[in-house]
Amino acid sequence: MTLLHGFPTSSLDWAAVVPQLVGAGFHVTTADFVGFGESDKPYPHTYSILEQADLVEAVWAVDGHDTTAVVAHDYGVSVAQELLARNPDRVTCMTWLNGGIWPDLHHPIPEQKLLAGPAGAEVARQMDEDKFTITINRLIGERPLPGEVLHDMWLGARARDGSRVLPSLLHYMEERRRNAARWTGAVRDYEGPQQFIWGPEDPVSGAHVIPRIREAVPHARLAVLDREPVVGHFPQVESPERVGPLLTGWIRENS
Question: Residue 108 in contact with residue 116, Cβ under 8 Å?
Fold first, then answer.
């Protein structure tokens, strides 16, 4: 299976669920998108979801994957939508975690709007670990993330002078709007099994998205993580003990 991470973090977001998946006998492929985590962060550079999809396909070629289950979160949701639009037959089953599948329902927080705006470079220069932690905590549900998890997120975001590329990475919000018909159509038209694992306490892509999921993908399986502690934007980080079994059961059922 292939795990696709979100903004502004890295594949480390999957650290708590990967051992569960591997322990269940699955081969797991994940990587940091270019511009994220420990991957190269060229500057200046036009970061594109299309480029990220190219790189995922290149990883699949190296690993010898003709087909794979895909699990996508946040930024990775858009990459997965592009991959589905290109060749849905390569994806055996799809799992979506909180992300902007439908651009009209994506509610970026103020920090994202500032980074994506004219003052983005200056906002990025002023970003430090305290400000980063405050931003991430705005997205979390009822269970606070441990300090070491937040620190590791920060280290990934700032690695290789990562702060200066943050505004460029956020161009994906406009790219998502430009490709809305193609990418939402890929979700609607995908004939394979789909599962949604959703944290309702997410201000960006939370409870307000659930009615659209039920309307647009009525045959999909939907797991809303609304049992205490209620989950926010990062289900796999906030509640790996719930997300892990949902993934392993789903992949077994559809492999």
Answer: yes
Q: What is the pTM of this model?
A: 0.98
Cα(76)–Cα(169) distance, rounded to whole angstroms?
12
CB contact at 8 A, 247 and 26: no
Radius of gyration (Cα) for the chain, nearest Å? Answer: 17
Of 116, 97, 95, 104, the C-alpha closest to 206 is: 97
Domains of the chain, CATH where assigned:
2-253 (3.40.50.1820)
Maximum C-alpha span of the chain: 48
DSSP state, 248? H
Tens of pLDDT along 201-237? Answer: 999 999 999 999 999 999 999 999 999 999 999 999 9
Find, among 125, 192, 200, the residue nearest to 163 by Cα: 125
**140 secondary structure, DSSP code:** -
Distance CA 6, CA 209 (A): 17
Q: DSSP assignment, residue 231?
A: P
pLDDT digits (tens, 9 = 90+) for 63-88: 998 999 999 999 999 999 999 999 99
Assign 252 a pLDDT band (cuts: 50, 70, 90).
Answer: very high
Peptide bond just before 146 cis, omega within 30 deg: no
C-beta separation of 183 from 106 below 8 A: no
How many CB atoms neighbour CB 175 within 10 A? 19
Q: Find tokens 């003052």 and name the residue.
A: 119
